[in-house]
Write a structure and sequence with these properties.
Layout lengths: L8 H26 L6 H62 L3 H8 L5 H14 L3 E7 L5 E4 L13 H6 L5 E5 L10 E10 L2 E10 L1 H12 L4 E7 L2 E5 L24 E3 L2 E7 L11 E7 L20 H30 L5 H63 L3 H7 L6 H14 L3 E8 L4 E4 L13 H8 L7 E2 L3 E3 L5 E3 L1 E8 L2 E10 L1 H12 L6 E7 L4 E4 L14 H9 L2 E8 L2 E9 L16 E8 L1
Antiparallel strand pairs: 1-2, 1-5, 3-4, 4-5, 6-7, 6-10, 8-9, 9-10, 11-12, 11-17, 13-16, 14-15, 16-17, 18-19, 18-22, 20-21, 21-22
Length: 632
């Protein structure tokens, strides 16, 4: 990998210093031999051997420096590339569920049949949908011939489509996902669409099309992950389809990626910059379109310079320590030889050797200093790499949690608008069988919930998707009270993270949304989030836990919400002192060393920022902090 040496100025300088000092050592050794007699010449022959040993050490250390620097840069880029594509894929997985469920909406079906609902009423209903699922900028409903029956976006003038996606969707028993130009949304160069046929009984009566805010979403992902001097691309079949640096990497440009065959870690060089590509690992069997994310870091910013160690404890690996230890032994032996030489020179009055021996001592110490500086660079590199890994892990897990719970807020509010729910709760005796049937169908599609249930205006449970035994019980909580008083279809209410009978007496979040008939509140719907499974999956996906590493979510009081480490149980208090807990829970991020259970850990934290309107501009606030720990 010597061809990569110019990319790392510090390593190149270290190599030049080694070579210069080795040449000086060689010259001084020759001078010593010339001016020696038979007794002292052996001293300088040993010095020649020392020179050869230093040369070998130099080669080993330079290779190690180069290898570690490349691995650090590449691993950081790889981590971000994987996060970019996997966060996007998680989001789009939700969209596949959206289009499948919305295509079964009874009011859409009634509208296409020409029964029971006007175009204006359906338009209002679709508007409610995008108020909640704010990732869409257009919804279009077609008949089977491609004629537009209704579309939501007033700025998108469309009456019919010739796009082959209509025929493809009609021929499919599932959704169709495509990113391409379409006359369905002519104002956009390309549109990410999700389409599904609409079926009434056994008869196909239309096609539903959801248009995803692709550019907006990629901007959000890029902004959350990028650092200065980095470029993030999304590539499909060697074509750039998204870029945070379109001046240098324009959309639709061809992007060729060929990995360096000499490197252990897979990367390529583009314009003398490191580039790493990653494809998705998939999410619940969904892998999306054939996309890959590419992270590019400018050459001049790829160097990790030697700095003051971030911590007193050494993180040098065994190979680095062995090289420095070997150099110490060589210098010590050489020092003994120089002292012996000085004694012999004094005894035999060969004073000409004294300046030569002084030079040898100076050069050998300089060589040792160069080696130790290189070792410090490696130690600093390891520490900075650990810091990056922990910080990016906490940031990723927090972002994914916010995005996940954004969907839960959407689901509860949208399902509260189900016409059957409104109709049944408006009657004196709601038909539990009908309600149960719909709840069971929804819960079968959305498996992140252990139960969905509905209660009337008095708080009495009248239907449940998985626990018929709770029907007839009265539910009481602050969230229920607020739900039954609310008439705003954008508001939702969430329980504290606490133990509940509706989740096997384990702690979780329960989301509530009001069911309203016009201006009258007739009840509410509750979704019981499977927090144990979902939060643990997020933490495990965001950080490779092992015997020394772990990840957690805590609230602003330090209560553990989820943990990969049995030392930190759910609902227990995370054992930080009050001052440090305040620092961790009030800052956007934190990094440092902490002592827990008489052990030292590196700790990185990220505070929840919310996602889109969720916990940003809506009626809900809940402070959560993601932590990653590594025992040291």
């Amino acid at each position: 990998m010597q061809h990569l040496l110019p990319l790392f100025p510090f390593i190149q300088k270290s190599k030049s210093d080694f070579e210069y000092e080795n040449k000086l050592l060689h010259k001084v050794t020759l001078t010593g031999k010339i001016n020696s007699d038979e007794t002292t010449v052996n001293l300088f022959e040993y010095t020649e051997d020392t020179n050869a040993k230093f040369a070998e050490l130099k080669n080993n250390l330079i290779n190690l420096l180069l290898d570690e620097n490349i691995n650090t840069v590449v691993n950081e880029l790889k981590s971000k590339a994987e996060s970019t594509i996997d966060i996007l894929i998680r989001n789009l997985f939700e969209r596949t569920a959206d289009v499948g469920f919305l295509a079964t909406d009874t009011q859409i079906i009634d509208f296409l049949r020409g029964e029971g609902i006007s175009k204006k009423e359906l338009h209002n209903r679709l508007h409610e949908y995008v108020l909640k699922y704010s990732v869409y900028n257009e919804i279009v409903i077609f008949d089977t011939k491609g004629e537009v029956k209704i579309n939501l976006n007033a700025d998108n003038s469309i009456s019919t489509t010739n796009d082959e996606i209509i025929a493809q969707t009609l021929a499919s028993d599932s959704y169709v996902e495509r990113y391409a130009y379409t006359d369905i949304f002519k104002a956009q160069k390309k549109t990410l669409t999700y389409t599904q046929k609409i079926v009434d009984g056994n008869v196909t009566i239309g096609v539903l099309c959801l248009c995803f805010k692709f550019d907006d979403e990629l901007y959000r992902i890029f902004e959350n992950l990028k650092t200065p001097h980095e470029t993030i691309l999304l590539v499909e079949n060697s074509k750039i389809i998204a870029s945070n640096n379109p001046q240098q990497y324009p959309l639709e440009d061809t992007f060729q990626y060929a990995e360096d065959k000499y490197a252990k870690e897979k990367f390529t060089l583009i314009k003398n910059s490191f580039a790493v590509s990653a494809k998705t690992n998939g999410y619940q069997g969904y892998s999306g379109l054939p996309w890959s994310a590419v992270l590019i870091k400018e050459n001049k910013h790829s160097q990790v310079d030697a700095t003051t160690p971030l911590m007193q404890r050494s993180f040098m690996n065994a190979e680095i320590s062995k090289i420095i230890e070997h150099a110490d032994y060589i210098i010590a032996d050489l020092g003994d030889i120089i002292i012996n030489g000085e004694l012999i020179a004094a005894k035999r009055r060969m004073y000409i050797l004294n300046p030569i021996l002084d030079n040898l001592r100076s050069i050998s110490l300089s060589l040792l200093e160069t080696i130790k500086n290189a070792g410090n660079n490696l130690e600093s590199l390891v520490q900075q790499s650990l810091k990056f890994n922990l910080e990016s892990s906490s940031n990723s897990s927090m972002d994914i949690m916010d995005r996940n719970l954004y969907e839960r807020a959407n689901d509860s509010r949208w399902w509260a608008l189900t016409p059957l729910f409104i109709e049944e709760l408006s009657s004196e005796t709601p038909n539990s069988k009908k309600l149960n049937s719909v709840l069971e169908y929804i819960n079968g599609l959305y498996t992140v919930y252990t139960n969905l249930f509905i209660y009337d205006k008095n708080g009495k449970i009248v239907a449940s998707s998985t626990e018929p035994g709770i029907i007839g019980k009265n539910i009481r909580s602050d969230a229920v009270t607020k739900t039954l008083q609310n008439k705003n279809t954008q508001h939702y209410f969430v329980s504290e993270f606490e133990k509940t009978e509706f989740y096997n007496n384990e702690p979780t979040y329960i989301y509530h949304a009001s069911i309203n008939n016009a201006t009258t509140n007739v009840g509410g719907i509750t979704v019981v989030f499977d927090s144990t499974v979902e939060f643990l999956a997020i933490l495990n996906d965001s950080f490779t836990t092992n015997s020394k590493g772990s990840s957690l979510f805590i609230d602003n009081k330090g209560m553990v919400i989820s943990s990969t480490n049995a030392l930190f149980e759910k609902t227990s208090l995370f054992p930080l002192d009050a001052n440090l807990l305040n620092e961790v829970t009030t800052q956007e991020s934190y990094y440092g060393i902490v002592t827990l259970h008489e052990k030292s850990f590196l700790l990185a934290s990220t505070r929840s920022k919310g996602y889109r309107e969720y916990k940003v501009s809506d009626n809900y606030r809940n402070s959560v902090i993601a932590l990653t720990l590594l025992e040291i």
